[in-house]
Design a protein that fits this description.
- By secondary structure, the protein is mainly α.
- The protein has 2 domains: 54 residues, Orthogonal Bundle (Arc Repressor Mutant, subunit A); 138 residues, Tetracycline Repressor, domain 2, CATH 1.10.357.
- The protein contains 12 helices and no strands.
- Helix 1 crosses helix 2 and helix 5 packs parallel to helix 8.
- The protein is flat, with a radius of gyration of 21 Å.
- 26% of the residues are buried.
């Protein structure tokens, strides 16, 4: 009698996929490697995920599982936006290529909707209409994704020769790009916490001005 393939839980599949992501990165994560790690045949994965993209969607959902779960009711809107943005950044940093996994998935799950709802509600609390609140929420999310992508691209797994690129930049900027030369320390700063906080402050201040301008 033929032996049945072992039943595998969806949560275990995603957890194993995230572990493989940390080891191989998003390009190196394959359905074949995942099946081997789970000690099952590749077709068994398709009970849960019909393609690698659907697996990525499940991983993206799992990445933000802890975001926007504990928000004080009387929290000022600026603090709420900051809290959600901070939690989103930390969540994406938990796994190699986390920002690349999440970007462009457009997953419609409770975890993702909860995160969006938290920011949209904060901007509407500030006086934005629904359209501006949604646009502002997207803008903050795009900012977090972009910064984390750069942060992770320069992480331990990076193959970039940053020192050589910095020297090339300095040689060119010194002669031809005076403003970039003046900003060279900021351009090559690896203090991503400071970059993140400053950029988020600028976004919130700009959105606040837009809300005031729309509702004088």
């Amino acid at each position: 009698m033929a032996t049945k393939a072992p039943r595998i839980e969806r949560a275990k599949v995603i957890g194993t996929a995230l572990a493989l992501l940390d080891r191989y990165g998003i390009e190196g994560l394959t359905m074949r490697k995942l099946a081997q790690a789970l000690q099952i045949q590749a077709p068994s994965l398709y009970w849960h995920f019909e393609s690698k993209q659907s697996l990525i969607d499940g991983m993206a959902d799992a990445l933000v599982d802890a975001v926007a779960r504990d928000l004080p009711e009387a929290q000022p809107w600026e603090e709420r936006v900051r809290q959600v943005a901070v939690e989103l950044r930390l969540a994406l940093l938990q796994h190699r290529d986390g920002a690349r996994v999440f970007a462009g998935t457009y997953v419609v799950t409770d975890n993702v909707l909860r995160t969006g709802e938290a920011m949209i509600s904060a901007f509407m609390q500030a006086g934005a209409d629904a359209e501006l609140a949604a646009t502002s929420s997207f803008t903050v999310t795009y900012y977090v994704l972009g910064l984390v992508m750069e942060e992770q691209a320069l992480g331990p797994e990076s193959t970039l020769d940053l020192a050589a690129r910095k020297q090339t930049f300095l040689d060119s900027a010194r002669e031809k790009y005076p403003h970039s030369w003046a900003a060279r320390e900021a351009i090559f700063s690896e203090d991503f916490n400071a970059r993140f906080e400053t950029g988020l402050d600028l976004l919130i201040a700009g959105i606040k001005q837009r809300i005031v301008a729309d509702h004088p």
